[in-house]
Amino acid sequence: MYNRPFTPEWITELEPNEVFVFGSNLAGMHAGGAARVAFENFGAIYGEGTGLQGQSYAIPTMQGGVDTIEPYVKEFIAFAKAHPELTFLVTPIGCGIAGFTAQEIAPLFYHAMDVENIILPEEFAEIVNDIHDRFINSFDHDSDRSSDNW
Question: What fold, for 18-144?
Answer without folding.
Answer: Leucine Aminopeptidase, subunit E; domain 1 (3.40.220)
